[in-house]
């Protein structure tokens, strides 16, 4: 039985369960449950703190896990990213009191408050910098105002929490995070192939739509250049002489522009349908 770690709480918890549900797996119905067995798919899910998930997977006690890229880096354990799940997106950034300093080169020698000391230490080592890292559990934005640190390094999504605390970001993000599927480094993951294919199917279904339209046969090359599909578009004859019907998967972002361009080219009966799932 495949054993998989899922966040039990926090930002990643609900969307992690949702992507698994969309991929056909059973998920807990009571948020207090800590284990859910899916006998039909031969998978067992363990609900754990997102921060602990890399530890269980890195030690080999669980086969796979869903966690944040920043949490994986922070843990420093031998687990690798197997699939980007495309939710829980955030950056990890330096933030300082407005007007204090502006360049990330100036962090050497300063006191840095963070809940992610592993990410910060990795950056300092890579940039040959020394600084005091003050490890906190959360609400890190308060640390500067309370005198514990000169700057912070934290997760930034909308930036609203920083603004409220009178802080501004400096420099480039230390990393860009999102939810990822992880497995122990160097382990044979062939038993996870079906789960990964199912998750990839959900991701494609979320990111693509099916576009269908009718177009004059002499405009087909122009039309299919706009809608090349993933492999190749399906072209079928129409009863109407000189016209064909085309079907192709197109990225959801940009579909309105594609429809406009097809219409301007002369295509008609342009229809968009959601894809609920797929295997490519
Ligand atoms: N707005 C956000 N705030 C915090 N974490 C976020 C946010 N958006 C995405 N994430 C990601 O969620 C993971 C942190 O989840 P975690 O459950 O530890 O913290 P949380 O969602 O802030 O919950 P809590 O602080 O209540 O425990 C990280 O991978 C982080 O990048
Ligand atoms: O850029 P924003 O959209 O404001 O989101 C980022 C903030 O949200 C999280 O805090 P959370 O509320 O989880 O509290 P915590 O610091 O105790 O984890 C995170 O640690 C940042 O503080
Ligand atoms: Mg938090």
TrEMBL record:
Q: This protein's superkingdom?
A: Bacteria
Q: Which GO terms describe its biological process?
A: L-histidine biosynthetic process
- State a GO cellular component annotated for this protein: cytoplasm
Q: Name one GO molecular function term.
A: magnesium ion binding
Per its UniProt record, the required cofactor names are: Mg(2+)
Query: Which top EC class applies here?
Result: transferase
Q: Where in the cell is it found?
A: Cytoplasm
Q: What is this protein called?
A: ATP phosphoribosyltransferase
């Amino acid at each position: 039985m495949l054993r998989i770690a899922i966040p039990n709480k926090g930002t990643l918890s609900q969307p992690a369960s949702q992507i698994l549900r969309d991929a056909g797996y059973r998920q807990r119905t009571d948020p207090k449950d800590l284990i859910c067995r899916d006998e039909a798919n031969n998978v067992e899910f363990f609900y754990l703190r997102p921060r602990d998930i890399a530890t269980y997977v890195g030690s080999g006690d669980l086969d796979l896990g869903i966690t944040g890229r920043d949490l994986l880096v922070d843990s420093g354990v031998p687990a690798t990213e197997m699939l980007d799940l495309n939710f829980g997106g955030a950056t990890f950034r330096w933030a300082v009191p407005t007007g204090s300093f502006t360049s990330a080169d100036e962090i050497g020698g300063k006191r840095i408050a963070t809940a992610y000391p592993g990410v910060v230490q990795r950056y300092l080592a890579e940039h040959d910098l020394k600084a005091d890292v003050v490890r906190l559990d959360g609400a890190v934005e308060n640390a500067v105002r309370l005198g514990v640190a000169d700057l912070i390094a934290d997760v930034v999504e909308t930036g609203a929490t920083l603004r409220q605390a009178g802080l501004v970001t400096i420099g480039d993000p230390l990393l860009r995070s999102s939810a990822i599927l992880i497995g122990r480094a160097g382990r044979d993951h062939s038993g996870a192939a079906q789960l990964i294919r199912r998750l990839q199917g959900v991701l494609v279904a979320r990111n693509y739509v099916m576009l269908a339209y009718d177009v004059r046969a002499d405009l087909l090359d122009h039309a299919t250049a706009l809608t090349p599909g993933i492999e190749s578009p399906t072209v079928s004859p129409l009863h109407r002489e000189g016209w064909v019907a085309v079907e192709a998967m197109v990225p959801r972002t940009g579909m309105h522009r594609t429809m406009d361009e097809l219409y301007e080219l002369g295509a008609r009966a342009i229809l968009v349908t959601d894809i609920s799932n797929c295997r490519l």
